[in-house]
């Protein structure tokens, strides 16, 4: 639906009044009505790098989800304040790994006699305390656009016997290990509180090269190998490109795999007349289709698939956050405590320093 013109005008007005004191970042999954006000748009890697691009802006309004705003707080100066327009914009995948559960898992790996060669690697989609856990334990953060480089770094830095504890997205971990690093599916085991009680033995853990946390994205989990077969039948010649949070089966069935930024670039560079079925969040796919009317860009599945928490950032919330700033009030500030921020930054800086 079209955005409320009154709210659009108010957002424009507030942003103009704030001038350079506000820097608005927008993730590709944000609604059109919100993304039009972003100074920078990107995938989570690009936004992590961009967060610190405007050190003179005292306010950073992050149109994305909670873990992204936390990372922006960690990566920016003490005098910059990060605002998430709706505090309910979380990420169900990030919520699947709590720090106490991860510490228990780490202890179990120690009990299995493998902790001295285990390194934690966490996907950006995790809480700041899990990133800090990785920082303290020789690990690194990764995003969907550099997961292969992060895993190579982990194995090279810690030696060929290294085991990686990959948090929290089992699919990104498995897809990257198998597609990019050439590990066998059997080299990966899934660890989670329920799975552990379901009989994952110390021997299983000890022989694995990748211990995958039992997390997933419910949005990307809705795509199936049948959706890929279905679109191939309906649209002969279509190229299927999916996000690496999709299941391994879907990734195997697809033609291309990439982060949101990679999907956008690939479609932009494709010749006119080509057809693309995209397996990622719907706001992004709809925008891509509108921006490239000369190409057939379609959603991979027949059902609607928004990320409900990304969608919580809507124009009324953005207007409220901006107008509050104009009035001198900071609402919904995201603040990570100093110790957590220090160690999370160690892991984030390792990611930002990855070669290539
Ligand atoms: P990107 O790293 O591609 O931005 O993906 C983030 C995300 O939340 C995907 O679900
Ligand atoms: Fe989290 Fe999935 Fe939404 Fe991305 S799409 S923010 S992983 S719930």
UniProtKB/TrEMBL annotation:
<dbReference type="GO" id="GO:0034628">
    <property type="term" value="P:'de novo' NAD+ biosynthetic process from L-aspartate"/>
</dbReference>
<dbReference type="InterPro" id="IPR023515">
    <property type="entry name" value="Quinolinate_synth_A_type3"/>
</dbReference>
<comment type="similarity">
    <text>Belongs to the quinolinate synthase family. Type 3 subfamily.</text>
</comment>
<keyword id="KW-0411">Iron-sulfur</keyword>
<feature type="binding site">
    <location>
        <position position="260"/>
    </location>
    <ligand>
        <name>iminosuccinate</name>
    </ligand>
</feature>
<keyword id="KW-0963">Cytoplasm</keyword>
<protein>
    <recommendedName>
        <fullName>Quinolinate synthase</fullName>
        <ecNumber>2.5.1.72</ecNumber>
    </recommendedName>
</protein>
<feature type="binding site">
    <location>
        <position position="44"/>
    </location>
    <ligand>
        <name>iminosuccinate</name>
    </ligand>
</feature>
<dbReference type="GO" id="GO:0046872">
    <property type="term" value="F:metal ion binding"/>
</dbReference>
<feature type="binding site">
    <location>
        <position position="217"/>
    </location>
    <ligand>
        <name>[4Fe-4S] cluster</name>
    </ligand>
</feature>
<keyword id="KW-0808">Transferase</keyword>
<dbReference type="InterPro" id="IPR003473">
    <property type="entry name" value="NadA"/>
</dbReference>
<dbReference type="InterPro" id="IPR036094">
    <property type="entry name" value="NadA_sf"/>
</dbReference>
<feature type="binding site">
    <location>
        <position position="91"/>
    </location>
    <ligand>
        <name>[4Fe-4S] cluster</name>
    </ligand>
</feature>
<feature type="binding site">
    <location>
        <position position="27"/>
    </location>
    <ligand>
        <name>iminosuccinate</name>
    </ligand>
</feature>
<comment type="function">
    <text>Catalyzes the condensation of iminoaspartate with dihydroxyacetone phosphate to form quinolinate.</text>
</comment>
<keyword id="KW-0408">Iron</keyword>
<dbReference type="GO" id="GO:0005829">
    <property type="term" value="C:cytosol"/>
</dbReference>
<dbReference type="Pfam" id="PF02445">
    <property type="entry name" value="NadA"/>
</dbReference>
<feature type="binding site">
    <location>
        <begin position="243"/>
        <end position="245"/>
    </location>
    <ligand>
        <name>iminosuccinate</name>
    </ligand>
</feature>
<dbReference type="GO" id="GO:0051539">
    <property type="term" value="F:4 iron, 4 sulfur cluster binding"/>
</dbReference>
<keyword id="KW-0479">Metal-binding</keyword>
<feature type="binding site">
    <location>
        <begin position="123"/>
        <end position="125"/>
    </location>
    <ligand>
        <name>iminosuccinate</name>
    </ligand>
</feature>
<keyword id="KW-0662">Pyridine nucleotide biosynthesis</keyword>
<dbReference type="GO" id="GO:0008987">
    <property type="term" value="F:quinolinate synthetase A activity"/>
</dbReference>
<feature type="binding site">
    <location>
        <position position="144"/>
    </location>
    <ligand>
        <name>iminosuccinate</name>
    </ligand>
</feature>
<comment type="pathway">
    <text>Cofactor biosynthesis; NAD(+) biosynthesis; quinolinate from iminoaspartate: step 1/1.</text>
</comment>
<keyword id="KW-0004">4Fe-4S</keyword>
<feature type="binding site">
    <location>
        <position position="307"/>
    </location>
    <ligand>
        <name>[4Fe-4S] cluster</name>
    </ligand>
</feature>
């Amino acid at each position: 639906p079209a955005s409320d013109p009154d709210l659009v005008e108010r957002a424009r007005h507030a942003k103009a009044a704030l001038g350079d004191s506000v820097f608005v970042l927008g993730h590709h999954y944000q609604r059109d009505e919100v993304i039009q006000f972003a100074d920078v748009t990107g995938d989570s890697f690009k936004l992590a790098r961009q967060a610190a691009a405007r050190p003179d802006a005292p306010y950073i309004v992050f149109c994305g989800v909670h873990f992204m705003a936390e990372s922006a707080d960690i990566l920016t100066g003490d005098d910059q304040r990060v605002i998430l327009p709706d505090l309910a914009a979380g990420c169900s995948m990030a919520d699947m790994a709590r720090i106490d559960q991860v510490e228990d898992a780490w202890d179990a790996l120690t009990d299995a006699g493998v902790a001295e060669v285990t390194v934690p690697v966490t996907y950006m989609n995790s809480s700041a305390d899990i990133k800090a856990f990785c920082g303290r334990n020789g690990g690194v953060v990764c995003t969907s656009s550099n997961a292969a480089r992060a895993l190579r770094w982990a194995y090279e830095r810690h030696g060929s016997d290294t085991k990686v504890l990959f948090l929290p997205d089992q699919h990104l971990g498995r897809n990257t290990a198998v597609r990019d690093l050439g590990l066998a599916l059997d080299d990966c085991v899934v660890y989670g509180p329920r799975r552990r009680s379901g009989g994952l033995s110390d021997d299983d853990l000890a022989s694995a090269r990748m211990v995958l946390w039992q997390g997933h994205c419910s949005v990307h989990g809705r795509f199936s190998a049948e959706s890929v077969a279905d679109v191939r039948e309906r649209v002969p010649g279509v190229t299927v490109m999916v996000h690496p949070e999709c299941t391994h089966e879907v990734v195997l069935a697809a033609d291309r795999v990439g982060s949101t930024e990679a999907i956008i670039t690939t479609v932009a560079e494709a010749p006119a007349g080509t057809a693309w079925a995209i397996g990622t969040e719907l706001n992004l796919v709809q925008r891509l289709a509108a921006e490239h009317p000369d190409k057939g860009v379609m959603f991979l599945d027949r059902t609607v698939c928004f990320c409900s928490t990304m969608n919580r950032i809507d124009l009324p919330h953005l207007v409220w956050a901006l107008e509050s700033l104009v009035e001198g009030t900071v609402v919904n500030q995201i603040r990570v405590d100093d110790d957590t921020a220090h160690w999370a930054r160690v892991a984030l800086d390792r990611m930002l320093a990855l070669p290539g």
